[in-house]
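Hi F.,

I've been meaning to write this up properly since the lab meeting, where we talked about keeping a consistent format for the predictions we share between groups. The idea is simple: the sequence comes first, exactly as it goes in, then the structure tokens exactly as they come out, then a line or two of notes. No screenshots and no reformatting. I'm using this chain as the first example so we have something concrete to point to.
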Amino acid sequence: MSIYLTIFLNIFFGLISGVFGGLGMGGGTILIPLLTIFLGMEQKLCQGINLISFLVMALFSLIIHYKNGFIVTKGVIFIEIGGVIFSIIGALLASISPTYILRKAFGIFLCVLAIIQSINILRNK
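Output, unedited:
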């Protein structure tokens, strides 16, 4: 693959994941499969790239959502405590897990998410 195509795909994938991240749907849900499937990157590398890009996207999304009054801070501390604790546990597990297990686990997660979202869409029709 040429360097120009790789650069274009990185920008395009960043655009797509940025839109989904800005909507609050998790850009990594899109970014990680795109990077692994189309650019052949290792799952762990993609997860690291996703974390770095998430920080920037989340900051800008947070500012915009806060200005629009869509942020409720009551009770957030409990979510943050649990998030930090389980982020550490998840990062430790990911660092010692073989790549093929991470790929399968992420694939199962995406399938379950798709099923849940499909059920919610059908219920709300």
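Notes:
Residues 75 and 81 are 11 Å apart (CA to CA).
The chain is about 80% helix and 0% strand.

If this format works for you, I'll send the rest the same way.

G.
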